[in-house]
Amino acid sequence: MPKTASTAALAADDCKPYALYPINDLQEWFSTIHFSRADRHSVVGRTPLLVRAFGDVRVERLMIPSDPPDGRALDAMLHRRANTEAGFLLGFTATGEHVPTLVAGRRYFWNVQSRYLPDVMAEAVALFPVGGRRMAEATIFGSYSVDAITNVVVGAGWFSSANATADAVAGLDLRIGRVRVRPTWRFREGVFDSRVTTTF
Q1: Residues 109, 173 within the same domain
Q2: Nearest Cα to 170, choosing from 152, 158, 188?
Q3: Cα first-last separation, the chain
């Protein structure tokens, strides 16, 4: 049987000295690299239009961060909102005889830690129809999660433009990246409403 070297001898022979570069020098080296928009596109390509419109992250920013190497990007990730359901919202819908209408307001969301009870969502918005008078709405929903992008919403609201200002509402809330599509039905008025909004 051939004689083999001991583990200790191998470790001693294979362990070569090495040096670490000072972090300040490394940071200075990174600070000298500046990619133009054309350089970034030629290296990593460009995120497809649909991903840019509906996605949460642009791929090219992950591959070559646009932020300087000073910890700013990491701080933004650590301190961003954990709940993206709530915030200011902006979007559009149609009112009356299919009149284009701007929607702006605020969405609130309370996550209920229960397997059986729905989460609670409330909205207060103003509507600005093209060529029409301004309107206001305030709604509160129970939100039942069906899957990662679909919630069933059931609740009630106050609608300044309706004959019966208080009404029961049911519908769906579909999340596609930062965009939400919410078709709903108002029972007393028999009105179908579908709106597209983004929350920020």
Answers
A1: yes
A2: 152
A3: 72
- For the entire predicted model, the pTM comes to 0.60
In the chain, where do the E strands start and end? 87-95, 99-110, 119-129, 135-145, 150-159, 166-176, 179-186, 191-199
161 and 190 together in one domain: yes
Enter the DSSP assignment of 32: T
- Distance CA(122)–CA(155), nearest Å, equals 9
Strands 179-186 and 166-176, sheet pairing: antiparallel
The string of pLDDT tens digits covering residues 109-133 is 998 888 788 999 999 999 999 888 8
Check residue 96 and report its DSSP letter: T
In a domain? residue 15? no
Radius of gyration of the chain (CA): 27
Cβ atoms 60, 47 nearer than 8 A: yes
Confidence of residue 50 (pLDDT cuts 50, 70, 90): low
The 10s digit of each residue's pLDDT in 134-188 is 999 999 999 998 888 899 999 999 999 878 789 999 999 998 877 899 999 999 8
